[in-house]
Structure formats: C-alpha cells, structure tokens
Amino acid sequence: MYWQLLCRYISKDEWEKSVQILPLFFFYNLKLLNFSAQNLKVKTENCTITFQYPEEKKILFCSIILDANQKDEINASTFTENNIEKHSTNIYCGVRKTDLYTLKIYCREILFPFYVCVCILQIYFTHSFSDDVVLYQTSPRRQWGPGYDTIVAGLLLVSHQKTVIDIEDEFILIQFKLTCSLGLFFTLLDSQGNLLEKNILYWIADMMVFIKLTSPGSGSYTFNIFSSDGKKTSNSIPSCSYLLNFKTSPCERFKNFQIPNRKLGITEQGPRQRCLLLSETPILFMLQIVVFWKCILK
C-alpha cells in the first residue's frame, strides 16, 4: 500500500483523508509543503499549492482544474510558476464561480516527453473572482518562468529569475547566455492573444542574447521565447515564458522602424553581401559594421 512508503507510519483512515498522491509522487521524491488534506476549503479568491523536489531531479510541472465531475477543464484557472534556484514550484488556482473543483497536478522529467499525474486535490472555493477580473494568462508551455527546459534548449538565465515581472519603466531588458548556436524568435501577446511584434527588439553579442521589450501600454502581457532551427510553426512550444505587468503608457520609440524579424545586427542577407560585424557591442544602435569585398584571384 502507498502509505507504507511514507517516512512515518500512518493509519489507513488518515491515508484516505490525506492528499491523493499517486505512485510517481514517491518516485520523484516530491514534497507537498503547505497542504496535507485531500479536501480543501478555500476562503479566499485563490490558493497556492507548493511542491519541492530534489536538486538532482530536473522536473517540470503543469496543472489543470476540472469541474466537480472531473469532466470539463476550467480554462485559465491555474498558473504554474517554476523556481529552479529553490527547486520548487508554486501552483496558483482561482475560479469565477463558487463550487467544488478537482485540481490535477502533473510533472515530468526534462528528458521524458510525457506528463504524468502525481497528485489530485478536491478544492471548494467559497469565494470567486468577479467577471471583470482577468484570470491567469495561459501558455502552450503550461508553466511559467525559466525552467530546466530553458537550459536544455541552450539558454542560461542571466537577468530575470522572477516569473511575474512588474515594470515601472517604458522598457525591460532580459538577458540570456547562449550555450550553442540557436535560431531564436519571440512573441509578446496581450490578454486577448494579439501579437505585438513591434514592441520587441533583440541582438546577440559574444554568445549573449539581449531582448528589449517596450511598453505596449499599462496591462499584463505574455512574453514567450522560442529556440529551435528558427522555423515558426503553430505547434512550437516556448522554451521560456514570462508574465509582464507594464505600468506605463505605450512607448512609440521603435515601433515605426522596419527591422526584419526585430533583430539588430547582421541579418540573414548579411553574409551573402559579404558583411562582417567587427564589433558586437550590446548598446542599441552602436553596432559598428564594415563591408568588404573579396578579391577575385585568377
């Protein structure tokens, strides 16, 4: 029986009232830090479930909320936040209707392609968000912040570990170290899913990627980082996702610049035109480019 795998002896009755945990919970050596009962009564608009995992485990989490019959998924009701420095994950939950819900939590090791269910909770929300409140943003990655999938993709975090970033200035500069040559592209989306491509600028220097995001206006935005062979496909999964809360009015400074793929520096046509970048200073518009023509030897 599963309760025999616990670090202390518990009775069958105590086990049946505790959180419903599945065998892989023990396989991954997970710890549920803030809840022990299977049935929770939440007296606030949302609740937070916190997991911790061993340092040697490279784990990703995701979660879904279902109705009481465990049939229909309640969209945008969970937010899964990674913290690879603390080897922990926070799962935030909130709904628009007071009722009983089922929270299912999944995880997978970074090299394993499929998520498996490790924990199930029954949550009764006595309070709910009003209709005018935007619930949690969604992402095809299903978790937020830099994670082990970010590292495997070839990106080492330099500047921002925090998943949700409040921005008081008209721009933010996010930096990563590249561990290999990558094709990169980015998306910035508003709460309605509209693509805000002109608010993105980036450049690469000395195996560092610098991403400058200008304010589209006060509000919350989803920023996704994709790393692959450079092909934009509809089923691509981000390597990293941030939730950005801009507090300032729209920044129009760079919107009218016609920049291919929003990348500064040598473009794809550069090598064909025999362009060589001698200095890769990461200061905006201070790139020094010289053009040389190869002599034809006969």
UniProtKB/TrEMBL annotation:
InterPro entries: Ig-like_KY, Transglut-like_Superfamily_Mod
Transmembrane segment boundaries: none
Taxonomy, superkingdom: Eukaryota
Matches recorded under Pfam families: Ig-like_KY
Domain KY-like immunoglobulin-like: 13-125, 154-248
Protein name, as recorded: KY-like immunoglobulin-like domain-containing protein
Organism encoding this protein: Tegillarca granosa
